[in-house]
Amino acid sequence: MVKFFWSRFKPFLFCFVGFQVLSLCGKFVQSWEGVSLSPLNMAATLGVLALTSVIAFLYMMLPYLFYLLFLPARKVNSKLDKIVTSVIFFIFVYANLFGVVAEQIFWDEFNSAFNFIAVDYLVYTHEVIENIYQSYPVNALLLAILIVSLIIFKLSYRFLFSDESDVTFSKRLVGVCCYVLVLVLSYYSVDMTKLEWSSNRFNNEAGKQGTFSLFSAFLKNELDYKTFYPVRDEKANLELLKKKFQAKNVTFLNPDENIVRKISADKPEIKANVVIVLMESLSAKYLEMKEPAPDGTLVKLTPNLDKLATQGLYLSNVYATGTRSVRGIEALTLAVPPLPGMSIVRRDNNENLRSVGSIFAEKGYENKWLYGGFGYFDNMNYFFANNGFEVVDRGTWDKGEVSFANAWGACDGDTYKKLIKEADESYAKGKPFLSVMLSISNHRPYTYPDENLPLKSGQHKRRGAVLYADYAIGQFIEEAKTKPWFDNTVFVFVADHTAGAAGKEEINLEGHRIPAIIYAPKLIKPQKIDTAVSQMDILPTLLGILNFDYVSSFWGQDILKPNYESRFFVSNYQKVGYVKNGTDVILKPLKDFSFEGKEISKEEQDKLMAEGIAFYQQADEWETYLPLVPEKAQ
Asked: Which 3-state string (H, E, C) describes 153-211?
């Protein structure tokens, strides 16, 4: 019985092992500078890869296993058996080769094994497939996979069948039952969160077999904080947090329940228009970079942002809460820490929240969400439409308003023009406006319109896209300056996340550093702040600049207030971090935690741990304190 199954599975297994070795080598080559080749780290990588590969292989072979179970003994090695086995083997080879290529593409973008980003991408197939087609030679890759699969099939064909005659149904049934039992045990005993055995993040990610990692992410893309993460007494947490937010202009509305509070300004309100631009994937490092042009000259990538930085409030040391656009949206609209798993933007029950939209709507503003793509992606349209905004995504645009588009949508220049048009309409109606826009052009496939820029579309990839994104901002500001509403408008330019957050560390802090500029020449004096701040501090700071009275559920704080305490929050899929004074505590599933950065005493560690837990544990109750409750919000 064992010999029969082994002889049939052997060609599949040998090919599968070869594919995993190929995939691992590809990841190591792509991240050669980051991986560790020390014996301990390599042992951890190979051990995890072996374990997850065995489990993945056993699951993959289930269809063939049941075929062999019910195959009549007299049909073993028959013509029909050979046809079925050959078809299954070819599909297996082609699918696994395709998986190897897909893993390399995903690793190239995220330096990570398949995670719930990959799961999300399977949902939004149109944009993702178009993006891949515009970024890679897909047809050539598919043809190459087909040719290699045919070669492997030809070389393996004579090993696919067995001369074993001891294949009675009862013996095969016993074998299948043992096989299924192993799978059941592996499902309940092997958890991806327990398999990070290496001290190097690249090694940990490289060791995760692709199919195993993908299905693990599918099953565990949202984790309940109290069940999986370190916790403290809730009353102690609340007392700690109230001390953090207490100030002379703050009144807690429900002090025994949460941190919902009334913020009272000590100066007259400024009824200025507000434009918030979430800049796609703009790492802080790009503001310091130059790129060689074809003529040999060095091109500054962000001359327009550099100019705005000297004319406005420039926050040079901001840290994004996450690695996705929805995290940036969450931080800028809700000012909440990045909870494990999915952003609130994509969760259920995220309607009618106390957000930037509700605050400005209460003050008579006309709120609009602008996006050059189709905002059903990542649930963005639903979130904004149900939190005080009119949706102005590409689906609402006139045909002539798009001059250039790629897989993700209209170029930034077109979106800025649309923003100005919508602002003009609000101004004509005598309405102050809040416009929130997400840019697109600085995203793979890095294509953009020819604007006589020294770096041409597609030739310089990310850096060319950064140059164009900056150029579009410059054109936007110059056009806005001609408008009657310009002098009474605050412009906020802040990245949604960086171009890449991967590093050797569990959470790479430099991979979260982004620029932020608040620009309003008639309202804000130029100033540079180098203090480390959180992306979710931008919203309270903006409201403070406008001297708004409002009810706050926000976890961010006004950077310009004298009692501001420098700290920030970061996340990497299932890990969340709290960083203060150069040390970060990382909270992990299975009630685990670790410290990185500057070494501190045990007493300081305990204090940092308590603060981090308090923020995340209480923020996890967002469904109780974020929804608008008028009777409690007065």
From this structure: HHHHHHHCCCCCCCCCHHHHHHHHHHHHHHHHHHHHHCCHHHCCCCCCHHHHHHCCCHH
